[in-house]
Write a structure and sequence with these properties.
This protein is mainly α. It has one domain (2-138). 83% of the residues lie in helices and 0% in strands. It has 7 helices and no strands. Helix 1 packs antiparallel against helix 6, helix 2 packs antiparallel against helix 3 and helix 3 (83-100) runs antiparallel to helix 6. The two termini are 25 Å apart. The model has no long low-confidence stretch (mean pLDDT 79).
Length: 156
């Protein structure tokens, strides 16, 4: 089980770092446009919603990029048979960005059901492996320790 968690955690960590960098570069590209649209956003609610979506994705991109080292740490913890700790680290790496873009989840529920939200699909695709690895890490058993006085009888 720990080898499956290792592969999933490394894949999720790489995906999280990739999508975090991509969202960060997209937000940086929109930075000049956002300053121009702010004046119009006061009267146009669609423009205001788009600005808020870009800003929440920008904030989440930092946590996604932090998911890269968190995924690697979680994978190393899983290999060393620290299942519960690995699970907590991996689930944190997956849940953090979802909390930061919760506005997209709440405001656009109809669009999610119709399949129009690209960022949510990207988040689910690239960090879903971290969530799956975190859930499977709960099933990693710790190494069995044989007491000193019993090791002579255990054939060790």
């Amino acid at each position: 089980m720990r080898w499956v968690v290792l592969v999933l955690a490394l894949a999720g960590a790489g995906g999280s770092g990739f999508i975090g960098f991509r969202w960060f570069s997209d937000a940086e590209a929109f930075r000049t446009t956002i300053h121009l649209v702010r004046a119009e956003a006061k009267t146009n609610p669609k423009a205001l919603a788009k600005i808020q979506e870009v800003q929440s994705a920008y904030k989440a991109s930092f946590f996604l990029m932090a998911g890269l080292p968190l995924g690697i740490i979680g994978a190393l913890l899983a290999i060393s048979r620290r299942g519960i700790l690995a699970a907590l680290v991996l689930i944190l790496a997956c849940a953090g960005p979802a909390v930061l873009i919760k506005d997209i989840f709440i405001e656009k529920t109809e669009d999610i059901l119709l399949g129009k939200i690209e960022r949510i699909y990207q988040l689910g695709l690239w960090t879903g492996a971290l969530l799956l690895a975190g859930l499977l890490a709960f099933f990693i058993r710790p190494k069995r320790v044989i007491p000193e006085e019993e090791s002579a009888y255990a054939g060790v």
